[in-house]
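Researcher: We're teaching a course module on how sequence relates to structure. For the next exercise, students receive a sequence and then see the predicted structure as tokens, so they can try to spot secondary structure elements on their own. Here is the exercise chain.
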Amino acid sequence: MLPANPPGPLSVLQRHSLLSVYGRSFGVAPVLGMLGALNSFDELEHGAEPWVRGMSELSETPVKVAPHLIYALARNCYTPDDSCMIFLDASGVDLIEEYIKPAADRDMDVILDSQLGRLSPTYFIRRMIDAGYLAYPNVHVALDPEFATGPDQETPGKPTGTLSAHDINRVQAMLAAYVREEGLSHKKVLIVHQFVDAVSDSWSMVPGKRSIQIYPEVELVFDADGFGSPNAKVSKYNAITSPTAYPQIEWRGIKIFQHNARAPWASDTPVMTPRQIYGLDPTSNGWRIWAPPHLVVVA
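Model: And here is the predicted structure for the students to work with:
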């Protein structure tokens, strides 16, 4: 008798809704997001509780909290060969002992977010693998095309960067191979932030998005990023996650910018309610989210 096929890695997003709390790290640069206004996992649990409660009333799956760390922060480029990046672990932070293990002890995940700069997106995956971060089942990855930086560009994000479907597929293939080769227990979530869908045949934030491939070891989430009114955010979300335009894409996310006194211009006005986020209540224009997100990022 042939042996039974071993079970594959477990899905993260079929079993949970993710609530990630975004920022550089605990107690650092609150202007970058909610996580920086918190100082510990106890404060994270307390600060996330209203969102957990609101989402839990509407979600079909339990809500899992995750600190969403800006692992690779883009900065101004000073020389032509500058990577334009500041890595969190290069600043003396022990990600495993200070974030990954404590999060696992509290049944939390951890998102490591890279703003790309002038580096290849696969560079960040290799760096995380070599550091041992992705061996932990609760650690996942996000990529931010906004800050992908051209060779003649000095300021990341000006103009807005892009990340091609080809490069996203390369990252997925790399993650999938790692999950298989290491026999990991869980799939890896890969989040791609996006706040503009294709605006013409000549420019898109994710060029070639219709050629995105699906890898069984990876759960690819397109996150509708960017601040604005509920009308603008619903319009963005529905375009970026459209089942008509992108029928192969299963997982969806949205980023919510709460009022930030340090950056009032970078806040949603007003902040969407959980019922609007889950498509149950319309915006002032009568628009609704077409299907609930699997990931909510709170900044």
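Model: If you want an answer key for the exercise: The chain has one domain: 17-298. The domain at 17-298 is CATH 3.20.20 (TIM Barrel).
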